[in-house]
Prior knowledge:
The protein has 341 residues and is an alpha/beta fold.
Amino acid sequence: MKLLSTSKQDLEEASRALKAGMLVAFPTETVYGLGGDAFNPLALAKIFEAKQRPRFDPLIIHIALREGLDPLVDFSRIKKTVRRKLDALIDAFWPGPVTFILPKKPEVPALATSGLPTVAIRLPDHPVARKLINLSTGAVAAPSANPFGYLSPTRAEHVAEQLGDRVDYIIDGGPVRIGVESTVLDMSGDNPCILRPGGLPRESIEKCIGPVDLRAGTDYLPRSPGQMKSHYAPRTPLELYTPENMMALENHPGEAYVFFDRQSSEAWLSKQPGSLNPIIHILSPEGSLTEAAANLFSLLHRLDHDSLRAIHIERVPDIGLGLAINDRLYKARVQAKNISD
Ligand code: TXA
Ligand code: MG
């Protein structure tokens, strides 16, 4: 694996690698992606191998310009009313943290879509990602750059640590801005439906196009494997609590307590006997969901290195980015429960 900067020269080297079928991890505004040429089945196969990702879990194809949709999407299979909504969403939120599921053209390799008749497409809001895509073939398949089921990477170091030589290049663009993956919105049926809550809040989508369904986190079959119950997980057992239940916890040495804001951490701390020095972390001192999302995976990565016996986390409010944060925490918790198997 070779680490690259974001210089023009390095991005050119990375784009040559992509065109040659190699894998390049790169920053986006949500999390780091593990990129391969979307039209090269061998490169796609390498992505699945590097991540040890099951083949039934399709990839997101990243484009750099709106026109990048044309070679990928069969617009004739999108209803007129849905098409209008899609156009409005693209105008409002692309480039940005939303992925659309759309009917695919036959030219899109089946490996990218796991044989589904639809394809996931995103135009990331990150200059490095867009430059790289533009310099290569204009369509880069990229799942989050982590081994399947593990925490998503929000820094180049996370990718290096987790994938090492399973990736050819890593472009270091510093820490990401948003910190949770894109919202996956299915636009292939009659009604838009959120399959994975993410960086674009449901409220913003609904303000733009009216009500959308939400099928994430239910036992609805994995049309979007991000919906699988266990995912995004650290290796350390993790438990999720309502604010009230969190308050009732007693401090145990070797276990970490993660609070949403300063207020709740102070309330909890005031109930603990002074001598014990609990391990406390706060996602956002002032209670900002944006800041909490940006800190979430980095903090879990750090805590996962600390050989803790357990991580206890307080749920955040279920609004805005809170829906995506709670979704990831819930899945991390289920995964942690399965580790003892
Ligand atoms: O923010 C993000 O979306 C990041 C960055 C790198 O762009 N990427 C990412 O990719 O999170 P990945 O592969 O980890 O998640 C893609 C999600 C999965 O839940 C997958 O099942 C779903 O999108 N997906 C992809 N194609 C689909 C399809 N045709 N129908 C339904 N879900 C699909
Ligand atoms: Mg992922």
